[in-house]
Design goal:
Residues 52-157 form the Copper type II ascorbate-dependent monooxygenase C-terminal domain. By secondary structure, the chain is mainly beta. Helix content is 6%, strand content 22%. It has a 4-stranded antiparallel β-sheet.
Length: 157
């Protein structure tokens, strides 16, 4: 992930924000031993704050629990909604979304995420064919857009 030059994640800016958690997902379904991994991560840090702070919001089914509903064989549709009260709990002013990443582990093949304002869809991101083994997460090509308090989110997998 590469952010615009004037955007950054605030790090180590409070007593509760003092660590970085890195989570790696490996794909070795046959459990072959002795495989060497050469992946890595590079962080660029500056003590000069950026003009805009970045943040992350996770929508849909963030804990992959599917509300306790089992996934059947074959195609099944699951819908998740975050109503306007939801966005009002974390937004007190408009924010600019600069990227979305649609991610379903191995439980989904297609995903649509919609932002609804006043009953009208104001933004749609989708991946028509998702294959976790090929991409891990899908980043739709899109222009940035604004989220506002009271916006509703609908995610369909």
């Amino acid at each position: 992930m590469v952010l615009p030059d004037n955007v950054g994640f605030p790090l180590f800016d409070s007593g509760t924000n003092q660590a970085i958690l890195i989570e790696m997902h490996y794909n070795n379904p046959k459990k072959i031993s002795g495989i060497t991994d050469f992946s890595g991560a590079r962080f660029h840090y500056t003590s000069t704050p950026r003009q805009y702070d970045a943040g992350i919001i996770q929508l849909g089914d963030p804990f992959l629990g599917l509300r306790g509903v089992k996934i059947n064989d074959g195609f099944t549709q699951h819908d998740f909604t975050c109503d306007g009260k939801c966005s009002s709990t974390f937004l007190d002013e408009p924010v600019t979304v600069i990227m979305e990443r649609l991610h379903m582990h191995k439980t989904g093949t297609r995903m649509v995420n919609e932002v609804v304002r006043g009953g009208e869809i104001v933004h749609t991101a989708k991946v028509e064919v998702f294959d976790f083994d090929q991409q891990g997460a899908f980043q739709p090509q899109q222009d940035s857009y604004q989220l506002q308090a009271g916006d509703e989110f609908r995610t369909t997998c």
